[in-house]
Amino acid sequence: MDTISLLTYYFKLMWAYGSYYMLNFYNTFRDYPLGVRVSAILISVWLIIIIVVICEIGRQTLSKKRRKNSRKNIYEKYGEGIKRILWDSDISDDLSQNEMINILGIDQKQVIGKRLLNTYLEKQVFCRMVYDLIIHDQMRESRNKNLHQLMELFVIQKFLEDDVNYGNNWNKVSAISMLRAFKLYISPWVINKLLENKSKRIRRLALYSTVRSGAETDLEVFETAFFEKNNCIYDEIMIGYELQRRKKNGMQLPNLALWTTRFNNPEIKCMLVRMMRRFEQREFCPQLKPLFDATQHKKLVEEICRTWGYLQYKDSEDAMSEAFTIQGDDTKVAIMHAIARLRSGRNMKLFTYSYENSSNPHVRFEALRCLYNYGREGRQKLKNLEQNAEEKDKKFFAFFHNPITLQKIPLDELQIYHQTIETSYL
Amino acid sequence: MWVTLYNIFAIMVFCYTLFLLISYLMLIFQSYRAQNRLKVDLPDDETIKYLMRSSPLTPGVSIIAPAFNEEVTIIDNVNSLMHIDYPNFEIIIVNDASTDRTMELLINEYKLVEVPYDVAMKVPSKPIKRVFKSTDPRYSKLVVVDKEHGGRKSDGSNAGINVCANKYFVCTDVDCIIDPMALYRMMWLVVNSHDPMIGVSATMLMSNNCTVDNGRVSEARVPTRFFPMFQQLEYLRSFLIGKLGWSNFNVLPNISGGFGLFDTDVVVKSGGYDQTSMAEDVDMLLRMVTYMCNSGKPFRVAQVPKVCCWTEGPNTMKQLYRQRIRWARGLFEIVSHHRKLFANSHYGFFGIVLLPYIFMAEFLAPLFEGCGFLFMIWLTIKGGVNWETTAIMFFMIYLFSIMLTLFVILFNVVADAVDWHSKTKAYLTLLFASMIEPFVYHPFITYCSNYGYWQFILKTTAIWTPIQRKGVKKKS
Question: pTM for this one?
Answer without folding.
Answer: 0.87
